[in-house]
């Protein structure tokens, strides 16, 4: 019976690859029959089953996976590579099962309709449009920064406990009145990652476990960054699997919320991407725009930069390569660079909103 199961799972793997190829050509199928139907049901079920657990079940799941793989390698060496055919069959069956569960519970969202098509907006924009959007963000960021501090040279300190920020971000999603983005988020399922130290060395602020749909955040990062990090991971939980789309969702949710600290986190988050994109197009203009920012805002940016510099090393470079290849394998051909495309969504979305409001 065991051999029959192993053979079935092994043969099922190439069929899965064929299915993925077909779905990549038909994103509307994924959107209609998975992302906006089956996934909503299964994700809500996952949230109800795991949200009450005080620790990250997803982190524990990954730990068990690593132990299983190490045990398999140990047995391989212990038997001196005998019964190699059976061992390879076990490995292929294991990969096939994990691959299936990954897509069933979350991964098919990688092949859904691109968000800009769902919103009916373009991904093209001119340097002038980017400049106008960036200047607007600078004005709003400076104005809000001045409300939150007594002096423009001071950075904004977040005197919140992390659990309080979780509640604020959850409320931001639940109370959102944005009609363009469907946000069926009913059960809070954000947790501190047990692997926050490794995540720091790897250069990651958080992640969503696709098997449990728990949102894990790196509790070591500066609190100023936590609102957008949490909002980003919730975006993934809602089925926006692509990084640029989750960043866009996080920006919208935090920038449009009533809480000033969430808005500040969101504005500076979107502004950083805009300034980076402007630097690629016109370095001198980018520097001129940065000079218009309150010095306290720059100190918030520096706070985050210094945090990541403290953990910079070979592990980060390895993880960037691995994760970049993972993104490319999952319908994000730009890999890590796809993060910058959030600017295209933001510029065109707010330009459209402005036109509609007029």
UniProtKB/TrEMBL annotation:
It comes from Psychroflexus salinarum. The lineage of its organism: Bacteria, Pseudomonadati, Bacteroidota, Flavobacteriia, Flavobacteriales. The chain crosses the membrane at residues 60-77, 89-108. Pfam families: DUF3810. This is DUF3810 domain-containing protein. Keywords: Membrane, Transmembrane, Transmembrane helix.
């Amino acid at each position: 019976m065991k051999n029959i199961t192993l053979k079935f799972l092994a043969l099922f793997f190439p069929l899965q690859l064929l299915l993925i190829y077909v779905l990549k050509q038909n994103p509307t199928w994924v959107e209609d029959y998975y992302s906006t139907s089956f996934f909503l049901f299964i994700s809500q079920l996952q949230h109800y089953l795991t949200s009450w657990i005080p620790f990250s079940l997803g982190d524990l799941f990954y730990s068990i996976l690593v132990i299983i793989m190490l045990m398999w390698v140990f047995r391989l060496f212990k038997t001196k590579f005998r019964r190699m055919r059976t061992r390879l069959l076990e490995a292929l069956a294991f990969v096939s099962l994990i691959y299936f569960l990954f897509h069933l519970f979350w991964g098919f969202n990688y092949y859904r309709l691109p968000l800009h098509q769902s919103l009916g907006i373009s991904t093209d924009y001119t340097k002038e449009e980017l400049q106008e959007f960036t200047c607007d963000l600078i004005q709003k960021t400076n104005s809000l920064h001045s409300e939150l501090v007594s002096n423009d040279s001071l950075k904004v300190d977040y005197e919140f406990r992390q659990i309080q920020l979780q509640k604020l971000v959850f409320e931001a999603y639940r109370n959102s009145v944005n009609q363009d983005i469907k946000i069926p988020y009913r059960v809070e399922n954000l947790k501190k990652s047990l692997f926050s130290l490794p995540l720091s060395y790897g250069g990651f602020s958080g992640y969503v476990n696709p098997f449990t749909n728990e949102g894990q955040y790196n509790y070591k990062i500066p609190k100023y960054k936590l609102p957008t990090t949490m909002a980003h991971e919730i975006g993934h939980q809602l089925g926006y699997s692509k990084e640029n789309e989750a960043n866009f969702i996080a920006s919208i949710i935090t920038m449009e919320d009533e809480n000033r600290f969430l808005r500040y986190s969101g504005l500076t988050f979107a502004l950083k991407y805009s300034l980076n994109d402007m630097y690629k197009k016109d370095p001198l203009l980018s520097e001129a725009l940065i000079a218009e920012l309150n010095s306290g805002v720059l100190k918030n940016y520096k706070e985050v930069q210094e945090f990541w510099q403290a953990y910079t090393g070979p592990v980060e470079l390895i993880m960037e390569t691995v994760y970049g290849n993972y993104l490319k394998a999952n319908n994000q051909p730009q890999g890590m660079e796809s993060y910058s495309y959030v600017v295209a969504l933001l510029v065109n979305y707010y330009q459209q909103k402005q036109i509609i409001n007029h």
